[in-house]
Amino acid sequence: MVTVTKVLFSRHIYALRFKSASIRVNIKNVSIAALMLLTVCALTLFALSVGKLPFTMTQVIELLLDPQRAESGFQAKILWDIRLPRVITAVFAGAALGIAGSIFQSISRNPLGSPDIIGFTSGAAAGALIQIIYFSAGSIQVAVGAIIGGLATAAVVLALSYQGGTIKRQNIVLTGIGVGAILSAFNGLLLVKGEIDSAITANLWLAGSLHARTWEHALPVFAGVVLLLPLAKLFSAAIAGLELGELRAQSLGIRVLKLRLIMTIIGVSLAALATASTGPIAFIALAAPQLAVRLRNTANLPIISSALMGALILLIADLITQLVPLDINLPIGRVCGIIGGFYLLWLLTRTR
């Protein structure tokens, strides 16, 4: 039998006990996460109805639930082969970036410690660009190249931040900015030296877009989030202990260096998969964890709430690009970059 007990000195935390096992549940945070999840689901259905051929919400639900209708018909083909891969890519790429941002901001203990600021996204973009320009690779090969490029960049940043037997968190952001600047110049050089057709394709990919997404783009990032989100959540308690300081974390039995390496691999893999699916998209990994923290009013960087917030931001940005008047085709990466620039300036003026 499960018993529920209110934790003393807390208005929102309850303890669920089953025999000898117990778990603490923050009702407020769970409610906020559930509300964000419902919002993501509602926006997903709305995004499936938006396009040159508008659908009603009833039509969308019928096409999703009726397997016979989904196998044939013009409307079903548009929904299942064009709109659904785009929306799935937006949801899970945004979630992957939100998780990655939460991980790196927690590791560096710095709100600027997101993968696009500290160069990991640039490294993933470099690996993907090599595949696109020199090998004319498909989506799976681009994803593999992005992961290799992101992990190689992370290895360089962490190696340069290693000092005195540990990775200095204060060096991660500064080192990452320098490495990211070098990689951005390298990516520009790849565009100049590549063949004209491949360079045009790569340049369009660098703008960041959800147009013409297929299941080949959606499935890798979907699988990455499904597999790595539980793993990141498993280590979230240890990450919270790491934020208390290295000495306190070590006194609690936390292997600081090993934990940072594991979480770096998880975060880089997620950021690289998102980059391979959509191209480089700024702002989301930077803002999603901070917005989730302010919404929950908690000190720890939440993994699941950051994922939901990232999915929510990218879905809203995608809808803005589709609903903007005058049929203006706006790459979602550029839209997020503009918004992210203003957000970064605001964050810098608010953070010491």
From TrEMBL:
Name this polypeptide is given: ABC transporter permease
Keywords, alphabetical: Cell membrane, Membrane, Transmembrane, Transmembrane helix, Transport
Cited InterPro entries: ABC_BtuC-like (IPR037294), ABC_transptr_permease_BtuC (IPR000522)
Transmembrane domains' residue ranges: 27-48, 87-105, 117-134, 140-160, 218-240, 261-287, 299-320, 332-349
Keyword Transcription: no
Taxonomic placement: Bacteria, Pseudomonadati, Pseudomonadota, Gammaproteobacteria, Vibrionales
Pfam family, one: FecCD
Cell compartments where the protein resides: Cell membrane
Bilayer topology: Multi-pass membrane protein
CDD domains: TM_ABC_iron-siderophores_like
Family named by the database record: Belongs to the binding-protein-dependent transport system permease family. FecCD subfamily.
